[in-house]
Specification:
flat
């Protein structure tokens, strides 16, 4: 039995009946936005923050000490950044101005 005997031409040429397209739903009517969702989310976040804060009471000393140490290091780093930045900016400015004066003098003497 070869392949032409197994299938007839009618098997491949049948028209397929498609179902009707579904109707598009109508657009929902929009209401003005309410602020109650934001208020409820804020109250919920406050309640959760308070609950977690109460759980932190036994380790509050350690947490405050760690936060204090981090604050001290950040304060020292910020102090050095501001002071060294201010001092170095004036030193660099003076060096650049001296270099520009030397180049201008060199160019003036070269043109003679």
């Amino acid at each position: 039995m070869n392949s032409s005997e197994r299938f007839s031409d009618e098997d491949f040429e049948r028209s397929v009946q498609l179902p009707p397209a579904p109707l598009r739903p109508s657009a929902p009517t929009s209401r003005p936005a309410s602020l109650w969702g934001v208020v409820l989310a804020g109250v919920g976040a406050l309640i959760i923050a308070c609950a977690l804060g109460f759980l932190m009471i036994p380790v509050a000393g350690v947490a405050l000490a760690a936060a204090g140490i981090v604050f001290v290091f950040v304060a020292i780093a910020a102090f050095h950044y501001v002071v060294w930045g201010w001092w170095l900016s004036s030193v660099i400015r003076e060096d650049v101005e001296a270099e520009e004066r030397a180049e201008a003098e060199y160019e003036r003497l070269r043109k003679r």
